[in-house]
């Protein structure tokens, strides 16, 4: 079959455009699909944050995961009904009508950890506000007090470095993303130190607990009544998670100290039981984040 010269030239031109990446944009013959979302590097600043709302995927019940690196509070933005914007290392951002407080509470519950216990642990380390949530190598830290109000959370485990900036603090995030917040570098450095203190303290508790347990291992006979008892025969409910167990111990110790200071039968003891049994940790007096 014979082809005229113009048709052959058209076919070869199209082929050359296909194999030559440098000329693809000039092609009028091939429809180029946009690259996948994960190839884009996010440059997040307070000024352009709202521009990501239209690109974000709406989530009715937003659940964070290991890809999350920034949870942004939109509750004060009157121009949008959304209250939370979440940025991931790959893929599109996520948005929700839920507040950041609801989103974070769901994540803590998913991990089976009570944030109130984390705060209590933080208070023992003199962390009175902006208490980080630390679990193993996961470090989520709020940039303001979040007990009585929503706020932004940054995943420090995805932060490679941070630097002072004219507008606040510039973070270098895993996979080449950049994040600029209007929080001062002094404040964010303070939060990073608090997060490190929490992480190291947790590691120390775990190491000492395991070492103590290991020393006692094998010092008694394995044929005893305790080892033969099943958990179900002892408890009528599931074994509580460690965080709930710790909170209960703290509550009972506090109640015991108060009871020793008051006379037996004092009505204040019953009042304390009613008020604090379900809310074992009272809200702290939050400090202004600008103090740091």
Write the layout of secondary structure elements.
Layout: H1 5-19, E1 43-44, E2 57-58, E3 68-73, E4 84-88, E5 94-96, H2 100-110, H3 115-124, E6 133-135, E7 138-142, E8 153-155, E9 159-165, E10 168-173, E11 178-181, H4 185-216, H5 225-228, H6 231-234, H7 242-261, H8 267-276
Parallel strand pairs: 1-11, 2-5
Antiparallel strand pairs: 3-4, 3-8, 4-5, 6-7, 7-8, 9-10, 10-11
Helix pairs in contact: 3-7, 7-8
3D structure, described in words:
It comes from Alkalibacterium kapii. With 292 residues, the chain is an alpha+beta fold. The chain has a domain at 36-198. Helix content is 36%, strand content 16%. It has eight helices and eleven strands. The chain has helices at 5-19, 100-110, 115-124, 185-216, 225-228, 231-234, 242-261, 267-276; strands at residues 43-44, 57-58, 68-73, 84-88, 94-96, 133-135, 138-142, 153-155, 159-165, 168-173, 178-181. Strand 4 (84-88) and strand 5 (94-96) form a beta hairpin. Helix 7 runs antiparallel to helix 8. The protein is extended. The termini are far apart. Residues 21-40 and 281-292 have low confidence and may be disordered.
């Amino acid at each position: 079959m014979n082809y005229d010269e113009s048709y052959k030239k058209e076919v070869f031109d199209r082929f050359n455009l296909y194999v030559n990446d440098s000329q693809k944009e000039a092609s009028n013959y091939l429809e180029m699909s946009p690259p996948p979302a994960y190839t884009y590097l996010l440059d997040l600043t307070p000024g352009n944050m709202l521009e990501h709302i239209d690109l974000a995927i709406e989530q009715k019940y937003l659940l964070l995961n290991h890809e999350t690196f920034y949870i942004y509070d939109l509750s004060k933005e009157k121009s949008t009904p959304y209250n939370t914007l979440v940025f991931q290392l790959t893929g599109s951002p996520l948005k929700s009508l839920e507040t950041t407080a609801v989103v974070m509470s769901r994540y803590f519950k998913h991990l089976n950890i009570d944030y109130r216990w984390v705060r209590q642990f933080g208070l023992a380390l003199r962390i009175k506000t902006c208490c980080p949530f630390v679990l193993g190598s996961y470090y989520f830290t709020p940039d303001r007090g979040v007990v009585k109000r929503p706020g932004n959370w940054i995943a420090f485990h995805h932060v490679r470095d941070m630097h002072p900036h004219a507008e606040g603090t510039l973070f270098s995030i895993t996979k080449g993303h950049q994040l600029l917040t209007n929080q001062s570098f002094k404040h964010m450095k303070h939060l990073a130190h608090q997060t490190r203190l929490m992480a190291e303290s947790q590691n120390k508790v775990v190491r000492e607990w395991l070492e103590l347990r290991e020393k006692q291992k094998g010092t008694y006979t394995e044929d005893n009544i305790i080892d033969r008892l099943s958990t179900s025969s002892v408890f009528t409910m599931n074994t509580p998670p460690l965080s709930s167990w710790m909170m209960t111990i703290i509550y009972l110790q506090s109640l015991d100290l108060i009871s020793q200071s008051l006379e037996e039968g004092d009505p204040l003891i019953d009042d304390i039981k009613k008020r604090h049994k379900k809310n074992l940790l009272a809200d702290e007096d939050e400090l202004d984040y600008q103090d740091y």
